[in-house]
Design a protein that fits this description.
The complex is a heterodimer of chains A (83) and B (461).
Chain A (H helix, E strand, L loop, with lengths): L2 H15 L14 H5 L3 H15 L14 H11 L4
Chain B lengths: L1 E7 L3 H11 L5 E4 L11 E4 L2 E4 L17 H9 L8 E3 L3 E5 L3 E5 L3 H11 L4 H13 L11 H9 L2 H13 L10 H14 L2 E3 L3 H14 L3 E3 L4 E7 L2 E7 L4 E9 L3 H7 L13 E10 L12 E5 L13 E9 L12 E10 L1 H6 L4 H23 L8 E5 L1 H8 L23 E3 L8 H17 L4
Parallel strand pairs in B: 1-2, 1-12, 2-9, 6-14, 12-18
Antiparallel strand pairs in B: 3-4, 5-8, 6-7, 10-11, 11-12, 13-16, 13-17, 14-15, 15-16
Helix pairs in contact in B: 1-8, 1-13, 2-13, 5-6, 6-7
The chains are: A mainly alpha (83), B alpha/beta (461).
Chain lengths: 83, 461
């Protein structure tokens, strides 16, 4: 997956969790939590969706790596490079 | 058979837990001993109509746009769309302490606030401070028992008002006598007074069918009429459950929604704590023709009443305590079309053991039950007007009925007085959800199922 594909994957998962989510003004280097009003339960959903779709096992201590779109790309990029 | 995740009990906590898991993996099995799902909130057919067993009103009303509200978070976690369920809000409910005072409340919190200013002016500033304290309180932070009654008295300095505020919250979910745990109180205050009450359109069957269909669409499976007789375990690890038929189902993780002592029994660990007072209830359902509806309150959804000087919420000395109770009009919600018949439901505290003593004498038991229903109609007639001549059908559930159909020990719908808020009962892969975990009511039970799966089951998937 390219960086943009990883970003699209994350946004697609978030759109699936919250159909009203607005991505227009999203800053890639700012926390998703604040910009999209997500909570820890939503982050668990993101982790579980990644597991379901790409068999990724993300340990709990790595959840902070999913804080921003950029950090998602940095963290997930290598894990999804053959996806 | 071998499953990753097994859930005992298809009440609302079990169903919610099952859906939550099935959303991410279909390797989940729900095991139910009855031929019908729903647990305490189920239904049966009598006299050609569907009769609901638990549902008075659902708490935690929220507008769809209020994303952080528990109701909407629950829907989101289960991937259910609010648009799938049409909601009828309550009209207005009342706390009526006869000959003393009465307070109205609805889904608009201002109404309750104005009632306090009008009827308890001296306590109004204290009430505002109480509400601020409730808003700031985190009920999910784990602490020991804190008395809600003492907390309220501190702010309100008026024991009548304290009792009137606690009365509906106790009847809607306190498993302990004459008090509540503060955390539980805060949850219930928000659920009932600040958020409010509603009914989903249709019957509880429609709601249960929707949940079951949703679960099965994710690939989840359900075994009906399958009573678990044993949980097989070694040290702190559970390996399987054994059914009445002798069939053994292996599982990696197990969630039990049947209660703490009930679960311990399946583990072969009989608990000996018999000093606890579980609270039982008796409920009567009266069906009346629509033609007499205008003679009874049409603008009240639920009336919580008390006729004594000191409101007691405790196990009565004998069969039933008629001094207090709940009167519910399930047709008095906004936008419900009148049918040919409507219902009045009454609920009072009852003593399981008095009823249990009559179990072997069927005639005496039935006579006592009929007598209790009569007394109930006479008592609530004082508040809502007489209706006993118009009853076309009635049915009464005693704590014995509840125990028989729901397996809740002593028919105590709110379970064991002690709660296990983290869901842990001493095993690595067995957790508790539902009544004895601590969130009560329909939305509370469902959130219990979801949060236990989030905390203990999904991270290990």
């Amino acid at each position: 997956m390219t960086s943009n594909e990883v970003k699209d994957l994350i946004l697609e998962i978030i759109a699936d969790i919250d159909e009203d989510a607005e991505f227009d003004d999203l800053q890639a280097d700012q926390p998703l939590r604040d910009q999209l009003d997500l909570d820890s339960m939503d982050f668990l959903d993101i982790v579980m969706e990644l597991r379901k779709r790409h068999q990724l096992q993300i340990p709990e201590e790595d959840y902070p790596q999913l804080a921003t779109l950029n950090s998602c790309v940095n963290y997930l990029g290598p894990l999804l490079k053959n996806a | 058979m071998n499953v990753r995740f097994l859930i005992i009990g298809s009440g609302l906590s079990g169903l919610a837990a099952a859906i939550r898991y099935a959303r991410f993996s279909p390797d989940v099995l729900l095991v139910e001993k009855h031929s019908r799902i729903g647990g305490l909130n189920s239904y049966f057919y009598r006299n050609g109509t569907l009769i609901e067993t638990g549902l008075h009103a659902v708490t935690n009303f929220a507008e769809p746009k209020n994303k952080k509200a528990p109701l909407n978070q629950l829907f989101r976690q289960l991937k259910l769309n609010r648009k799938q369920i049409h909601i009828h809000e309550q009209i207005a409910s009342e706390v009526c302490f006869t000959n003393r005072e009465s307070i109205l409340f609805s889904n608009n919190f201002e109404i309750l606030h104005d009632q306090i200013i009008l009827k308890f002016p001296h306590a109004a500033p204290g009430f505002d401070n109480l509400v601020s304290a409730i808003n700031a309180y985190d009920p999910f932070y784990l602490r020991g028992f804190i008395s809600a009654k003492a907390f309220l008295l501190h702010y309100l300095q008026d024991s009548l008002l304290v009792d009137m505020i606690m009365c509906p919250l106790m009847f809607y979910g306190s498993s302990i006598e004459n008090d509540m745990d503060l955390g539980q109180f805060v949850i219930m205050f928000r659920s009932i007074f600040q958020e409010g009450m509603f009914r989903p359109h249709g019957t509880i069957k429609d709601f249960l069918d929707l949940l079951r269909h949703h679960y099965e669409q994710f690939g989840g499976r359900i075994l009906m009429q399958s009573r678990v007789t044993k949980i097989l375990h070694k040290n702190r690890k559970v390996s399987a459950v054994e059914l009445e038929t002798g069939e053994v189902i292996q599982c990696d993780r197990l969630l039990s929604t049947i209660g703490y002592q009930e679960t311990m029994q399946l583990l072969g660990r009989e608990t000996t704590d018999e000093s606890v007072n579980r609270l039982g209830f008796i409920e009567s359902i009266f069906q009346l023709p629509i033609s007499c509806r205008h003679r009874l309150p049409v603008d009240r959804t639920i009336i919580f009443y008390n006729t004594t000087d000191h409101f007691l919420y405790q196990r009565p000395q004998s069969f039933v305590d008629f001094n207090s109770g709940v009167i519910c009009f399930p047709s008095n919600f906004q936008g419900i079309e009148p049918q040919n018949y409507f219902e009045i439901r009454s609920t009072h505290l009852a003593d399981f053991f008095s009823w249990k003593a009559l179990q072997s004498d069927r005639d005496a038991y039935l006579a006592k039950k009929a007598q209790a229903a009569r007394r109930s109609t006479e008592t609530i007639a004082e508040i809502i007007g007489n209706f006993s001549d118009n009853i076309v059908y009635e049915d009464t559930f005693t704590p014995l009925t509840v125990e028989r159909f729901t397996a809740k020990k002593e028919g105590a719908i709110y379970g064991h007085p002690q709660k296990f808020k983290d869901g842990k009962i001493g095993y690595d892969n067995l957790f508790l959800a539902g009544t004895d975990q601590g969130y009560l009511g329909i939305i509370g039970s469902m959130l219990s199922g979801v949060s236990m799966v989030n905390q203990h089951i999904l991270p290990a998937l």
